[in-house]
Structure formats: C-alpha cells, structure tokens
Amino acid sequence: MTTPRLSFSRRLRKSPFEARSHVGATAASVYNHVVLPTAYASLEEDYWHLREHVQIWDVACQVQVEVQGPDALRLMEYLTPRDLSQIEPGQCMYAPLIDENAGIVNDPIILCLAPDRFWLSISDSDVSLWVKGLATGAGFNVRVFDPDVFPVSIQGPKSDTLLSRLIASPPEDIRRFRFIKAEIAGTDLVIARTGWSGQGGFEFYLSEPEKGEALWDAIVAAANDLNLRSGCPNLIDRIETGLLSHGNDMTLSNNPIEAGLDRFFKIGKASEYLGRAALEQIASAGASQRLVRLVVPGDHITNPRETYPMTIAGAQQPGYVTSICHSPRMDCHVGLGYVPAGASAVGTRITLSTPQGMTEGRIADEHWQVASTP
Fold it and tell me: Is the whole-model pTM more than 0.90?
C-alpha cells in the first residue's frame, strides 16, 4: 500500500526548528496544526537511543495559550478541577481541563510566569478558542492569546550533562516541574524540567522564532561527545511510562476519573470550575469504566488507527484498547485500554480483536506485573 505524502501549506504552522528537525525523519504527523516528526531510525532504535543517550526534539507543536490579566488565576482555576491556588511563579502543574459534562478538553502543563500571567502548554486540541470563548462569555478580565512561543526539548539520561554545558546555573537546581529563565547562544529562554518521556529531560521555551535554528545548532554543538540525535516522542517509551495521549487514550467523551487523572486533584476544591456538578456526580456514583495497563504476549500487534475491541473475563460489557506496542525491553506487548470498572483487577484475562487476529493477555499493575508478588 502506498503511503500518502504530507502536503505543506500556510494551514500548517511552521516550527522554527523545521529546517533541522525534519532532516532524517522517516515519519511525521500533524499535531496542533504543526508537523511533528514521529520516527527517525525506527521506533525501536529510537527507543533504545532515548533510554541510553540524549535526543533533541522539535516539540513546537506544544502550542502555548497565554492568559494574562487581573482575573488570570481565577480563569485558570475555572478551567480545571485541580487546585491551583498555591501555584507560584517558576512552577509547572499538570492539569486536566474539563467541559460542562466533565469531558476532558485537554491536559496541558500550566506554567506560572507571574501571579497574573500563565502559559498553557497544550496537547492536541484548539484550546485557545475555547478559553477565549469562556473568558469572553463569563466576563473574565483577561487577555487570551497565542504568545508565539515554541518549545524544543532534550530528553534522555544525558540531558543534565548537556544542559550543564549550555547554562551557568547547575541543572540540578531546576526541580521537577519547575522552570528558570536562562540564556543560550544569546537567546532568552524559559527552561523547565519537564518533557513527554520517562527518561527525564528539559523543555526550552523559545519566544524569538527567528533564532530557532541558531538555538538548535548551539545545543547540538555542545553535545558532540554525548551521542546526541534528533528524536521525537516515542510510542514505546510513553506507553511504558504510562503517559496518556490526548485524542488517543482520552477524548472529550472520557472523564478524568475513569482515565485515572483524579490522582492530580481532589473533589471539593474551594474555587468554582466548569463541570463541577458533573464531575462530583461521577465521583459519587463511581466511574463506569477504568483505564488500565495491558500486557499481551507476542510482537506482531500494531498500534490501532482507532481502537481494538476487547472482551474481559467475568464481564458482560466489552472494553477497548486505545494504545499498544511491542516492548523490546519486556519482550511482550504493553498497552492501555478501558474496561468495565468492576473488571479492572490486576491479572484479569482479556482477549483482543486485532487485524492480526484474536490475542489473549492480562491487566497489569503500574509496574507491568500481572500478578502480585507473594
């Protein structure tokens, strides 16, 4: 089958790193109207390199939405069930955003730049228009706009070593989910200890797009002995880490309780937020389904274009797989999917229906174990 080529036009927003990051990429997708490389050497080779060395990622697709003004914090609180009342400048917080029915609109990292100024570093959905509409309709005294800020990321175990060569401050002073302001190659940046991998790293927020290629080149030049490669978010690594993909593992039809995101908030926060009544009703009644980790033997199942149907032992209702891949480290498939809440116990047998046929597996715990240790 011939794979269609990606066509470029003004409808696709241009990354300031595009001339560098597209070199060597073998696959790409469109994310927030920006082209995102999704593979270089191969999915597995990229995975091993990420685990052992350091990669530079063009993640300009993590579009920023800025909220600024006297009511900025009040509006931010209104978007999420997570309590943001104690957030302070220099802090990042992961926060699910929900609609009036408690559906997941997005799951950004929120960066507090000042008490009255925030960035939402968003996953793939048009959050800016939604936030602008809420702010205008409810009369919040804020400005909501695109600040033209583009992230580039370094990820992998050698990230701290690389960053130590680029800035004066010791990287270890940047705590997890915190950021500093620093300069690299004459360019002012916000540098956060965040990133969509399980291997650790940093995201550099660039507010001068014309300096994107110079910044990329400065990072590469500082890593000549670190086996740095261009890379991208890796399907195997993110599933093993348990990082959910908005649009794949959760959509507007899912609520944060069934998706397991309730570990980031408590029901009953003081400030008002959209969807409170719906979310509290779900919490009171209990979610009807739960997102679980799956372990399936073999190495031939491809990640679903949509979802794979799944039957669960002891359950009348079916479930479905949202993401799955072969883990070369564990020599089996690892996946994510939804099952009826009453059939989500670790070790429960499941049967997947895939284009490659019927395959059996089990529900696993957060360590990918299918049975408790005696």
Answer: yes
Torsion angles phi and psi, residue 184, rounded to 5: -130, 130
Token look-up 């957060």 returns 366
Cα separation values, 12 from 7, 34, 105, Å: 9, 5, 22
Query: DSSP readout, 18-52?
Result: HHHHTTT--EEEEETTEEEEEESS-HHHHHHHHHH
User: Does 340 reside within a domain?
Assistant: yes
Q: Which long-range contacts (C-beta less than 8 Å, at least 24 apart) are formed by 145-148?
A: 145/65, 145/66, 145/68, 146/63, 146/64, 146/65, 146/66, 147/64, 147/66, 147/119, 147/207, 148/207, 148/209
Strand partners, 99: none
The residue out of 100, 125, 145 marking a domain boundary is 145
Residue 193, both tokens = 């200890």
Same domain membership, residue 70 and residue 24 = no
**Which pLDDT tens digit goes with each residue over 307-339?**
999 999 999 999 999 999 999 999 999 999 999
Closest by Cα among 201, 161, 163 to 183: 163
> Distance of CA 286 to CAs 257, 278, 297, Å?
9, 12, 32
The H or E element containing residue 181 is: strand 179-184
Could you tell me if residue 89 is inside a domain? yes
Q: Examine the domain organization and report whether 46 and 194 are in the same domain.
A: yes
> What pLDDT, in 10s, does the model give residues 29-39?
999 999 999 99
CB 81 within 8 A of CB 256: yes
Mean local confidence (pLDDT), 188-216: 98
What is the residue type of 298? G
Q: At what angle do helices 72-79 and 127-138 cross, to 10 degrees?
A: 120
| Nearest residue to 234 (alpha-carbon basis) of 42, 34, 17 | 42
